[in-house]
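Researcher: We plan to redesign the surface later, but first we want a full-length starting point. Tokens attached.
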């Protein structure tokens, strides 16, 4: 069956870019479509950020702060299920960060947590950051062993004033 491949864009799909500021004859000279004077007419003009109110104290700063967020302290994990491990590993192998990377079960450097979804039929050695209790039970039932190696804690920035001693001493170190 012969096909006629004369592909073209529908009428009006491709518009020419409007050239502005090229003299009176162009129809877009003088102010180049930016109107008269003001912040929007200047180069680099426009609102500095979302929620900008022309220099007036913005709403998000007028309202009181309430509550506390644990977001900066949350711990993120890469989740791997026992069913996926059972498919990709041979009996007697060691399951650790390097082998999980090699088998493309994880990517990046976030700590790994093994969960019990799926069945494990091979005896494997686990050297991992974290494992659920039910997953550990399944691994040991299949003849494997689990060694938990805790991930290093996040390094948090120091207080702006330095140490606690520096704050007590009036900010001087």
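Model: Full-length starting sequence:
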């Amino acid at each position: 069956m012969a096909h006629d491949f004369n592909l073209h864009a529908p009428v009006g799909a491709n518009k020419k870019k409007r050239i502005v500021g090229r003299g009176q004859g162009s129809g877009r000279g003088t102010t180049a479509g930016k109107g008269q004077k003001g912040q929007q007419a200047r180069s680099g003009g426009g609102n500095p950020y979302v929620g900008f109110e022309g220099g007036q104290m913005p709403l998000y700063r007028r309202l009181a702060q309430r509550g506390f967020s644990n977001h900066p302290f949350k711990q993120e994990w890469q989740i791997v299920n026992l069913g996926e491990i059972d498919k990709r590993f041979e009996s007697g192998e060691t399951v650790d960060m390097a082998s999980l990377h090699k088998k493309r079960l994880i990517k990046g450097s976030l700590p790994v947590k093994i969960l019990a979804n799926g069945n494990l039929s091979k005896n494997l050695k686990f050297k991992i950051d974290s494992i659920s209790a039910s997953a550990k039970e399944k691994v040991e039932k299949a003849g494997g062993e689990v060694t938990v190696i805790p991930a290093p804690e996040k390094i948090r920035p120091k207080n702006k004033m330095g140490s606690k001693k520096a704050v007590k001493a009036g900010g001087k170190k």
